[in-house]
Amino acid sequence: MIYLCSMTNIAIFASGAGSNARKIIEYFANHTSIRVALVLSNNRSAGVLDIAKTHQIPIAICNKVTLQKEEEIMPLLHQFHIDFIALAGFMVLIPAYLTVAFQNRIINIHPALLPKYGGKGMYGMHVHEAVFQQQEKESGISIHFVNAKYDDGDIIFQEKINIESCENATEIASKVLACEHANYAKVIEKVVIEFREKESE
Ligand code: GAR
Ligand 1 mean position to 71 CA, how many Å? Predict the structure, then answer.
């Protein structure tokens, strides 16, 4: 049987510099069946918005209040035919209506080995500072499905990083970020392909 595969559209939700978003956008730029169709941010001055503009990807701005409004966000996601959401440094809790509508189709990356160093308040440099304070020998990255709690959904992928030589949290951050860049887009691709294969069974 010939299986005609249409495009899977990803929305990236990001709040900050957007280095992971950039890697994802670049990875899928010439992909035959997956594209980044929307970038949504809660921060008008987020670097990720410039990256999206450069790549001519539509952008949307929300805030904590509008993100809660199912009647505003769902039509937006439908308008761009969004199938998956990838969080890339998105600092707002995902509302329950989204985790229900996109069950196992929202993916997050966390800069530590969950369940350690996760939860409310554990993001960005706070994570690396806590890891450094605890004199951990290793840190790493976790890519997981998103549920209605911070950093709590099923783990899809983890990679450990030796940080014994790191002399401060900034050095840990830089090693972890490089590992995120090397893995996040590939893991998203794998999840999307596996999802599509299951759907077509
Ligand atoms: C990344 O390290 C990501 O893992 C982290 O924010 C950073 C965003 O960097 N996310 C969290 O801490 C979520 N709890 P970026 O904007 O350069 O991609």
Answer: 28
